[in-house]
């Protein structure tokens, strides 16, 4: 950044004062909390986060210095739960990603299913394509069974997530079938569970930092299972 574009010392000081004011307002809102889902606390939290982010940026631009605070982004957390306190219905949204790493294994499994269903060869469609084999296998097995046996089908697990959303009433039959994957209301999410290898990367980084602090080289440690995954639950504050 050029000197002309740098913020002034007064601007940095003003941003610091804004953080102090936002901090006082947040504490006051917490002290006056009227319930677990008090919108005033949520609003004060957002104001404090925004003020701290502005201060952090100005401090860095002016003095090449940073704060010890980590401000979560909007995509990193869910807003406070605003659904029914006693839900009469729920929706479970699941996404599981896979990579087709052994197409021949996938095709062989599909051909076995096809042979069992069409013993005389009648109506047997081509299972010699990957998309055809996928359609045949997912039509034969439940998604949970495929998840537990994915290696048998030549698949490799990627990220997965499960969201539980609350509702006042069950949906009418066929109500959402035309658009089943519209963006859900994040304020209706009761809880979510995420599985990703990125969590292992974070754990590995933490372990390496601990090893460095102890003066032991990280490469001397045995592999703790690079392919393992950890499930995290981001529960909505209530």
Based on helices, strands and strand pairing, what is the structural class? alpha+beta
Query: What sort of overall outline do the alpha carbons produce when their principal axes are compared?
Result: elongated
Largest beta sheet, briefly? Answer: 4 strands, antiparallel
Strand neighbour order, sheet with most strands: 1-2-3-4
Mean pLDDT across every amino acid position:
79
Quote the beta fraction. Answer: 15-25%
Radius of gyration based on Cα positions: 26 Å
Given the structure, what is the number of helices? 6
Low-confidence stretches: 217-238
What distinguishing features does this structure have?
disordered C terminus, alpha+beta, single chain, 238 residues, elongated, 4 strands, 4-stranded antiparallel β-sheet
Describe the protein.
With 238 residues, the chain is an alpha+beta fold. Helix content is 41%, strand content 16%. The chain has 6 helices and 4 strands; from the N terminus they run ααβαααββαβ. The chain has helices at residues 9-31, 39-63, 103-117, 130-140, 143-148, 197-213, and strands at residues 89-100, 155-167, 189-196, 230-233.
């Amino acid at each position: 950044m050029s000197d002309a574009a740098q913020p002034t010392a007064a601007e940095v000081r003003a941003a610091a004062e804004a953080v102090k004011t936002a901090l006082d307002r947040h504490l006051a809102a917490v002290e006056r909390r009227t319930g677990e889902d008090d919108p005033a606390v949520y609003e004060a939290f957002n104001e404090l986060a925004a003020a701290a982010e502005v201060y952090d940026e100005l401090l860095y631009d002016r003095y090449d210095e940073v704060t010890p605070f980590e401000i979560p982004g909007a995509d990193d957390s869910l807003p406070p739960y605003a659904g029914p306190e006693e839900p009469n219905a729920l929706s479970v949204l699941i996404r599981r990603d896979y990579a087709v790493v052994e197409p021949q294994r996938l095709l062989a499994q599909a051909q076995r299913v096809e042979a069992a269903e069409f013993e005389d060869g009648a109506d047997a469609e081509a299972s010699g394509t990957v998309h055809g084999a996928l359609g045949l296998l997912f039509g034969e097995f439940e998604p949970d069974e495929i998840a537990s046996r994915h290696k048998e089908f030549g698949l490799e697990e990627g990220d997965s997530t499960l969201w539980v959303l609350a509702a006042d009433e069950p949906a009418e039959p066929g109500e959402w079938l035309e658009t089943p994957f519209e963006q859900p209301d994040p304020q209706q999410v009761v809880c979510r569970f995420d599985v990703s290898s990125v969590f292992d990367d974070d754990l590995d980084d933490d372990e390496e930092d601990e090893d460095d602090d102890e003066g032991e080289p990280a490469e001397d440690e045995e592999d703790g299972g690079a392919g393992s995954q950890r499930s995290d639950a981001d529960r909505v504050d209530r």
